[in-house]
Design a protein that fits this description.
The chain has 264 residues and is an alpha/beta fold. The chain has 10 helices and 8 strands. Strand 5, helix 3 and strand 6 form a beta-alpha-beta unit. Helix 2 packs across helix 3. The termini are far apart.
């Protein structure tokens, strides 16, 4: 298992799959590389695909220090690229991974070829926050009820039912994550504000969002698309937060087609 080293010495675990032009897949808050497991092979069929464990998740180090932020996570991605010998890559970030991808493209433009931002936000104070009813559902004292609420924010009820009993969902958080890392991930995502940096993004950009996403409201998609020069936007009808998994039959070809285009 390859490990890169962040500037503060934290070990950053990553994996490389497939061959072709490099593509970095960035996961959501409090999730490891496993977020991409259901669709990773589809991307690896066309690209040299890099997935990583954020600090605090998976096999990466879990420092209890003030080193968790979306710009900091972007620097961790650069450390992984350096260790993997990749000078420049496509980047596909979803949820908090999309927030990190914004900083990666704005602050390290020489490392990003084409950019896909999925189910993400420019952050406060300009982004659209989830509603109070969503916050209440996720903060229930009954842990099983809160997990069910999260699952239904990620996927449609019909799709959940079709998975059957015992189905494994990789988007509901890394179960091995220590409490301090979970808190620091939450704070890092909540403090994200890339509004002033978005106009600096020069990479061709595609913004993708589900029309029924309440976890990260769909209204954030046009904010990003209008703020990033030349960005395109695609909304997937009926999709919730984990559109990239449930709607993979549409979302994966959409991303791959965009990444295969030649920049002007």
């Amino acid at each position: 298992m390859p490990f890169a080293q962040a500037a503060d010495g934290t070990a950053l675990h990553y994996e490389v799959h497939g061959s072709g032009r490099p593509l970095v897949l960035l996961s959501g808050q409090s999730n490891s590389r496993r977020w991409w497991d259901p669709v990773r092979d589809d991307f690896a069929a066309a690209h040299r695909t890099v997935v990583l464990d954020w600090r605090g998740t998976g096999e990466s180090g879990r420092p209890d220090t003030d080193t968790y932020s979306t710009p900091g996570f972007a620097r961790d991605v650069v450390a992984v690229l350096d260790h993997a010998g990749i000078d420049r890559a496509h980047v596909y970030g979803t949820s908090m991974g999309g927030r990190v991808a914004q900083w990666l493209a704005a602050d390290h433009p020489e490392r990003v070829d084409r950019l896909v931002l999925g189910c993400t936000s420019p952050g406060a104070p300009h982004g659209v926050e989830r509603g109070p009813e969503v916050r209440a559902a996720l903060s229930q004292a009954d842990g099983r009820a809160a997990r069910r609420a999260l699952m239904e924010l990620m996927y449609t009820p019909g799709w959940i039912a079709r998975q059957g009993e015992g189905a494994v969902f990789h988007t509901l958080g890394d179960p091995a994550m220590p409490p301090h890392a979970r808190r620091r991930h939450l704070r890092a995502s909540a403090r994200h504000d890339a509004w002033d940096a978005l106009p600096r993004i020069a990479a061709p950009t595609l913004v993708v969002h589900g029309t029924d996403d309440l976890f990260n409201p769909t209204a954030n998609a046009p904010l990003l698309a209008e703020r990033i020069p030349g960005a395109r936007m695609r909304l997937l009808a009926g999709a919730r937060h984990a559109y990239f998994e449930e709607f993979a039959g549409v979302a994966t070809p959409l991303a791959l087609d965009f990444l295969s285009e030649t920049s002007d």
